[in-house]
Amino acid sequence: MKHTSIARRVTPLAWTLGLLWAFATSAEAVTSPEAMLEGTSQKLFDVIRQEREVIRTTPTRMFEVVEEVLVPHVDMLRMSRLVLGKNWRKANGQQQQRFTREFQSLLVRFYTSALLDEESTQLDKLLDAADKDLITFQPATLSPDGRQAIVRSEVRVPEGAVIPVNFRLYKGTGETEWKVIDLTVEGISLVTNYRSSFSTEIRSDGIDGMLNKLAQRNRELMDQAKNGGKGAAAPGAR
Predict the structure, then answer these.
(1) What is the pLDDT of residues 19-48, one digit of tens each?
(2) Which of 42, 123, 80 is nearest to 210 (CA)?
(3) pLDDT band at 82 (very low <50, low <70, confident <90, very high)
(4) Measured CA angle at 186 (ends 4, 17), to 5 deg
(5) What is the pLDDT of residues 164-199, one digit of tens each?
(6) Does residue 14 surpass a pLDDT of 70?
(7) Does residue 115 register a pLDDT over 90?
(8) Does residue 98 carry a pLDDT above 60?
(9) b/e string for 138-173 if b means 16 or more Cβ within 10 A?
(10) How is the chain classified by DSSP, letter by letter?
């Protein structure tokens, strides 16, 4: 699998920051997409701080923490449909379910693995920066029907760079909660990038072949985390 174009052009940490903000959770009601993104960040980082020592000794705990706050607050089914595009309709129900599950694991494990180096220095940098002006959000731009929103932001990564991160959110008719369906870092859409990669693999290996490779990559990422982050690389990189 060759999902490497994002990693070549943008640091994994910048993507991690964007994903963590996008998939954070909050018990408070919100009235706008940007309020949701801004108001939920503190709770997530509080959890990571509480779990920091556990994460140091058991890095895979970081995956569990992100899973716990991610799943209810991202429209993973809609994102998966966008990523597969026309191939979603070609897949049967079992394949669609498997892809949604494996793609979620890929996002959590690959982008979180940027924080799981041997000395946990990236995690420490992230938590230190979280107390500062790490990210700023602009008011959302809504679609004419009010069901989609774009929230532009700037992330100041610990290395000092300022990275533009735009969130795309969706709220269906009758729904009260905005959910993230895509994010763009320095002009690179996560959905578009993966759609191209998976389309290439499906043409080469078929849907089941792509799914098997995706599952194998997720196992590799889990093994790397258990080994303290050694060998972490872009999904599919060899």
Answers:
(1) 666 655 443 444 688 887 776 666 777 888
(2) 80
(3) very high
(4) 80
(5) 999 999 998 888 888 999 999 989 999 999 999 999
(6) no
(7) no
(8) yes
(9) eebeeeeeeebbbbbbebbbbeeeebebbbbbbbee
(10) ----HHHHHS-HHHHHHHHHHHT---SS--SSHHHHHHHHHHHHHHHHHHTHHHHHH-THHHHHHHHHHHGGGB-HHHHHHHHHTHHHHHS-HHHHHHHHHHHHHHHHHHHHGGG--TT-HHHHHHHHHHTSS-EEEPPPEE-TTSSEEEEEEEEE-TTS-EEEEEEEEE--TT--S-EEEEEEETTEEHHHHHHHHHHHHHHHHHHHHHHHHHHHHHHHHHHHHHTTTTT--STT--
Asked whether the beta carbons of 106 and 214 are under 8 A apart, the reply is yes
- Tokens linked to 234: 């872009």
Residue indicated by tokens 């079992």? 94
Residue 198: Cβ-neighbour burial (10 angstroms; 0-12, 13-18, 19+): buried
**Mean pLDDT (the chain, rounded):** 81
Residue 26: its pLDDT value, please? Answer: 42
Average pLDDT for residues 104-127, to the nearest whole number? 77
> What amino acid is encoded at 235 in this protein?
P
